[in-house]
Amino acid sequence: MRRHWKKLLAAALALGALGMIVAVSGVIPVRASGGHWAVTEWLLHFAMRRSVATHSMGTTAPRLDDPAMALKGAVHYDLACSPCHGSPAQRSPRLARGMVPPPPYLALTLGQWDQAELFDIVRHGVKFTGMPAWPTAGRDDEVWAVVAFLRALPRRDAAAYERMVRGDTAVTVVSAEVPSLVVDNCGRCHGVDGRGRAPGAFPALAGQRVEYLLASLEAYARGARHSGMMGPVAAELTPEERVTLSRYYSGLPALPATEGGDAAAIARGAEIARRGVPGARVPACASCHGPGGVERNPRHPRLAGQHAAELALQLELFRQGVRGGTSYVHLMAPVARGLTRSQARDVAAYYASLAEPR
Ligand code: HEC
Ligand code: HEC
Ligand code: HEC
Fold first, then answer.
1. In angstroms, what is the span from residue 285 Cα to ligand 3's centroid?
2. For the CA atoms of 141, 142, 146, 149, what is the dihedral angle to 10 degrees?
3. Is 5 exposed, middle or buried (0-12, 13-18, 19+ CB in 10 A)?
4. If you compute the radius of gyration of the chain from its CA atoms, what whole number of angstroms results?
5. From CA 257, how far away is CA 120, in angstroms rounded?
6. Is the C-alpha dihedral spanning 65, 66, 69, 75 positive or negative?
7. Which terminal residue of the chain, N or C, has fewer Cβ atoms less than 10 Å from its own Cβ?
8. Which of 213, 216, 207, 201 is nearest to 308 (CA)?
9. Cβ(288) to ligand 3 under 6 A?
10. CA proximity to 163, closest of 266, 249, 88
């Protein structure tokens, strides 16, 4: 019996050594140009389907029917995913043709995945393929926005898709003062007018302080502020472009206060802004964010006229400790610790209802 085991062990070692020799010799093709054998491809895809099904168990989708959410996912899809997966406007992008396995045209394959599975794929990527993971941790809200868009993708024709991902950059008569990057990139989310498309999908930048805009772009670019949407965009900009774009948006007229909101919530929010929440050691927001004529540090963002949904989102990210920010972000720590969710909603409603003279 023992002799038997010894023989088996020797055979296994010999096989392993042979495998090493073959691998070292380099005759096994790992070149993508040869493609996978059908059986390898089947096995990889099968393993991926099983992995996705298992890992997405227990994930519950938030509500995905908000059009602002799908819009947020749409522009990101066009910039970051369509070069591989194509879009109704360009079904077979050049980059994708040489890839192994090829990135599928999603409108045709999405039916096989449920929402939680799509979330898992977009959040974590797929090993052994070109499919990348979401660039930042902690931003599940952004990944869900992409899933919200994917659900609507199969129903869109090229024209509807273009309208969705270009917004007013396609129709505005753009004057010479508008930097071309605003038309090709930033304006597709923030608007050429800087007010943010689809109230609440994107932050308004118009009239924001130039120092804060610039410091925020730098923070995204070096990964100190965490967003899988803004991070890659900011990292591509040169320092000069960051300055030009910050000046452009800061110089535009700010939002007029259009978001009425619930009067009682606004009144509660105003109280927090003026006095803070002394019992929870939350300082008065107004001392850093206004309104009021105090000369404030230019790195403190203006909040007046920002969309309520955007303010509430940023406060929630502070709460969860995943927002990051500029070198002044520590000033928000007592706020993040002390403010409850409903207080955050109230104070967001208050600032959204203000039109501070800027
Ligand atoms: C560099 C190219 C590349 C980029 C960029 C990319 N993907 Fe993929 N993706 C792939 C490849 C390759 C696969 C195929 C994986 C496989 O066959 O198992 C894939 C698979 C998928 C799948 C599963 C498709 C199916 O039905 O099998 C989804 C969904 C998906 N990607 C969504 C996205 C989204 C959303 C983005 C943008 C946030 C994105 N991908 C960005 C290459 C890419
Ligand atoms: C795909 C959509 C998209 C594009 C394109 C885009 N942004 Fe953004 N931007 C966002 C989103 C979403 C946020 C909020 C991210 C977060 O939660 O931190 C944001 C945040 C910002 C902020 C911080 C605002 C604040 O109030 O804190 C600045 C500054 C900014 N973007 C500038 C730009 C500039 C300049 C460009 C063009 C080079 C650009 N963005 C392109 C989606 C986009
Ligand atoms: C001591 C000064 C200070 C106080 C007090 C303060 N903040 Fe801030 N807040 C900041 C700074 C600085 C930032 C910019 C953080 C960064 O990105 O680096 C900020 C950012 C924010 C943002 C994100 C804005 C955006 O466009 O992304 C929100 C929302 C906010 N604060 C809400 C509040 C609220 C609500 C209160 C009161 C309950 C408050 N803050 C009190 C200094 C302060």
1. 7
2. 70
3. exposed
4. 25
5. 39
6. positive
7. N
8. 201
9. yes
10. 88
> Ligand 2 centre from 217 Cα, in Å?
8
pLDDT of residue 204: 95
CA atoms of 93 and 105, how far apart (whole Å):
10
- Dihedral sign computed on CA atoms, order 323, 328, 333, 335: negative
Q: Work out the burial of residue 261: count CB atoms within 10 Å of its CB; fewer than 13 is exposed, 13-18 middle, 19 or more buried.
A: middle
Peptide bond into 101 cis (omega under 30): yes
Residue identified by tokens 């995905």 is 64
CA 167/CA 338 separation, integer angstroms: 38
Residue 257's pLDDT is 63
pLDDT of residue 355: 76
Tell me the two tokens of residue 44. Answer: 């990889």
The residue-averaged pLDDT of 202-209 equals 94
Cβ–ligand 2 contact at 181 (below 6 Å)? yes
Distance CA 102, CA 90 (A): 16
Q: Tell me which residue has its CA closest to atom 31 in ligand 2.
A: 230
| Ligand 1 atom with least separation from CA of 77 | 37
Residue 87, token pair as written in the block: 């879009």
> Which atom of ligand 1 has the smallest separation from the CA of 147?
35
Which value, to the nearest 10 degrees, does the dihedral of the CA atoms of residues 130, 134, 140, 144 take? -50
Q: Pull the structure tokens for residue 212.
A: 């804060």
Task: Give the C-alpha separation, 194 to 272, whole Å.
Answer: 28
From CA 242, how far away is CA 353, in angstroms rounded?
Answer: 29
Distance from the alpha carbon of residue 97 to the mean position of ligand 1, in angstroms? 13
Mean pLDDT, rounded, for 292-303: 80
291 lines ligand 1 (CB under 6 A): no
Which atom from ligand 3 is nearest to the alpha carbon of 273? Answer: 37
Which one of 142, 189, 240, 255 would you pick to mutate in the ligand 2 pocket, going by the greatest count of ligand atoms within 8 A of its CB?
A: 189
CA angle, residues 320, 58, 85, in degrees to nearest 5 = 85
